[in-house]
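Running log. JK asked me to keep both predictions on one page so they can be read side by side. First protein, sequence followed by its tokens:
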Amino acid sequence: MERGDTKQSVALGFLAGYVDTLGFIGLFGLFTAHVTGNFVLLGRGMAQPAPDIWLKLLVFPVFVLGVALARLLILRWERNGSRQLRNSLLLQTLLMTASVACAWLAAPVDRPDAPLTMLTGLLCAGAMAVQNAYGKLLLGKVAATTVMTGNVTQLVIDLVDTLRGDADARGRLKKLVWPVLAFAVGCISGALAFMLAGFNGLLLPCALLLWLACAASD
């Protein structure tokens, strides 16, 4: 992995862990960076109905729409010769900033079924859907930055193979370890940020995304 790719994967891994944890704490157990956890919570909500069921129910179609929108825009930017990654990062920044603004309007966020609270979560999930999409479409050589299950599985396999003397596995190990560690650090940082600053903590990912957009080469 090139040095620039490593820096990018670390930054995006940190961002995903940070946003997912902050959102989980502030938005009544909502996972914003991936939908697997929300399927589990939705199943629990069906068995034990709770006020947050609608937020969990709506986040899936919003996530799907976010991925679809990103795909269509990336195709359009490709045809126009526009900078696809930079524009994708700016789109994610826009949605994340809108989520922060909505959280300000929703304050105090104390009811999961309040319209502005739900909109805050859906905008945040939409922003992370965009990251999932451009990660697949534009960052194919970079380790996944939003969902760590596959990364950790491959990391353990490569660790075993490295200990067996496999040189190729050692190279893959170096590629995977940094985004996994960055995601873990992001989770801890997101929790601390919410404790200290509430939803204002989402301003850090907004700034990080702007920095990545400015640094993007394509």
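And the second, directly underneath as requested:
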Amino acid sequence: MQELNEKIKQFGTVLPGNVLKVDAFLNHQVDPELMLHVGQEFARRFAGEGITKIWTVESSGIAPAVMTGLAMKLPVIFARKHKSLTLNNNMYVADVYSYTKKTTNRISISKKYVAPDDKVLMIDDFLANGQAVEGMLEIADQAGIQVAGAGIVIEKSFQPGGQELRDRGVRVESLARIKSLADNQIEFEED
């Protein structure tokens, strides 16, 4: 997606530890028009797959997931990171380690919103080590449902997550693939 690559070039900042900061348009301040185009692109790439729901992990995946749900006319479920008083124990849960925050969160999805015949598309803002997608895959396994694949806004392909998921047979569609962040320069994969 050229539009996304241009936003990354214009607003992306490389931080120590191979962190790409894109809070100007993706995961703090959100560019709604760009997110709409992201959702439309995921809808195009996963058309005809029989998907029934979109899944993501709060909070940075919500904007692209909602726009994908809008484009596909499907409900969006976000796995919660914090236990809520309104959620009971009838939950699927998994532990997810955050690369950028260096913390582990327990994510949960209510069994109420998961049907045995669901086929889900997982959406996330970043893919580095694949922990968020792994957590959602664990929940899908617990629920015994099918996974169509993972739609990733930005993949850091120099980290192992994307290849590990692909090696497991998970379809991964990344809209921008970062080859390197060395010397504070953003280098994209050639497609």
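Observation for JK regarding the second prediction: DSSP finds five helices and ten strands in the chain.
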